[in-house]
């Protein structure tokens, strides 16, 4: 019987691991298919407090991992397949059921990419899903954003601080985004919408960095090439909540609902980071929630015993 199982090893999960380990709870941390989470797909992280010269995403994760390990966190590679709420709670991990008094779910969200063959290798080389993380690397060069929702408009507007032009490539002729965000984006002279179009392929330079995209006009089928230095894909995220949806309350997009602090609707089950947050999605906010979830789990366990 575990006291606390932490699902996920991104910023939220690792911060929860540091705090619960320091509280002598000997947490068991489950590393899933993408150890380290979304930070492992970025290069320099310039907005995490305490690193004035920036820090590599994977290095930051590695340091958090070491810190948690130093205080006694334990690790297990495993993919959660099912969850049953109860006393104790049960998690099915790679076919085996495990029992635990409390769970901190920090399984994150996965950004959607377009689905073009081979695009995984371009992530971090001119293909990204995070303008806040990577926008500042593309100063005075053209970039494009793919999508038509609030994220796409927000990212495009943010990118105008750096890029010379921001092409907004959307598959329809109107934006799904809220009116205020759509109006703000379309009023920006640096944002140039390309309507009724999709990206069908990437062009790369000798260094393997993205140098352009193939664009297909969906109305007449014509193809064109657009020279840009980075593609920001903003076509939504999918929270990694599959095994929990049967028991835990989620919103209409599948994100876990926090009913107060980081508590979920099931006592002893806490949610932290992008698995429950579709608004901020930052490493530092995820870390903050991981800390809060650990403190709440510790208090809950004290009452439980
Ligand atoms: P979203 O609202 O689901 O929009 C996704 C966009 O991507 C849509 O325009 C969609 O096109 C397009 N798309 C989806 N799959 C595509 C594909 N395979 N190829 C090309 N385009 C594709 O996602 P989101 O913008 O990330 O927003 C998610 C939620 O977070 C929303 O509730 C949003 O309001 C919220 N959000 C809020 C803020 C804020 O308030 N500051 C900021 C960001 C997000 P169609 O329009 O044709 O479906």
3D structure, described in words:
There is one protein chain. The protein is an alpha/beta fold and 305 residues long. The protein has two domains: 2-111 and 237-304, FAD/NAD(P)-binding domain (3-Layer(bba) Sandwich), CATH 3.50.50; 119-233, FAD/NAD(P)-binding domain. Helices cover 23% and strands 28% of the residues. It is built from six helices and 19 strands. It has helices at residues 11-22, 57-70, 131-134, 150-159, 179-187, 283-304; strands spanning 2-7, 28-31, 44-45, 55-56, 74-77, 80-84, 89-93, 96-105, 109-111, 127-128, 143-146, 166-169, 191-194, 197-204, 210-217, 223-227, 231-233, 237-239, 269-271. The strands form five sheets. Strands 1, 2, 5, 6, 7, 8 and 19 form a seven-stranded mixed sheet that branches. Strands 10-17-11-12-13 form a five-stranded parallel sheet, covered by helices on one side. Helix 5 (179-187) links the parallel strand 12 (166-169) and strand 13 (191-194). Helix 1 (11-22) packs parallel to helix 2 (57-70) and helix 1 packs parallel to helix 6. It is elongated and about 65 Å long. The mean pLDDT is 95. The protein binds NADP nicotinamide-adenine-dinucleotide phosphate. NADP nicotinamide-adenine-dinucleotide phosphate binds at residues 114, 146-152, 154, 171-172, 176, 198, 234-236, 278.
């Amino acid at each position: 019987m575990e006291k606390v199982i932490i699902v996920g090893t991104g910023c939220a999960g690792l911060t929860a691991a540091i705090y619960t380990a320091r509280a002598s709870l000997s947490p068991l941390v489950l590393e899933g298919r993408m150890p380290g989470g979304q930070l492992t797909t970025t290069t320099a992280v310039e907005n995490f407090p305490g690193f004035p010269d920036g820090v590599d995403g994977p290095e930051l994760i590695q340091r958090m991992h070491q810190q948690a390990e130093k205080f006694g966190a334990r690790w297990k590679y495993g993919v959660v397949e099912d969850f049953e709420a109860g006393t104790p709670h049960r998690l099915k991990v790679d076919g085996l059921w495990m029992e635990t008094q409390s769970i901190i779910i920090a399984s994150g969200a996965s950004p959607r990419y377009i689905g073009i063959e081979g695009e995984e290798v371009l992530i971090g080389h001119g293909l990204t899903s995070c303008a806040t993380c990577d926008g500042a690397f593309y100063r005075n060069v053209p970039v494009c954003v793919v999508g038509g929702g609030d994220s796409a408009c927000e990212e495009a507007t943010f990118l105008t601080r750096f890029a010379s032009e921001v092409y907004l490539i959307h598959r329809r002729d109107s934006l799904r985004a809220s009116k205020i965000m759509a109006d703000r984006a379309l009023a920006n002279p640096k944002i140039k919408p390309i309507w009724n179009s999709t990206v069908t392929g990437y062009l790369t330079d000798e260094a393997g960095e993205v140098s352009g995209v193939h664009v297909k006009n969906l109305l007449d089928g014509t193809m064109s090439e657009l020279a840009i230095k980075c593609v920001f894909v903003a076509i939504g995220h999918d929270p990694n909540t599959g095994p929990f949806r049967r028991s835990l309350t989620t919103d209409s997009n599948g994100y876990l609902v926090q009913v107060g602090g980081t508590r979920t609707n099931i006592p002893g089950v806490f949610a932290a980071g992008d698995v429950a947050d579709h608004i901020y999605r930052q490493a530092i906010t995820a870390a903050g929630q991981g800390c809060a979830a650990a403190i709440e789990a510790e208090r809950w366990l004290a009452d439980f015993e």
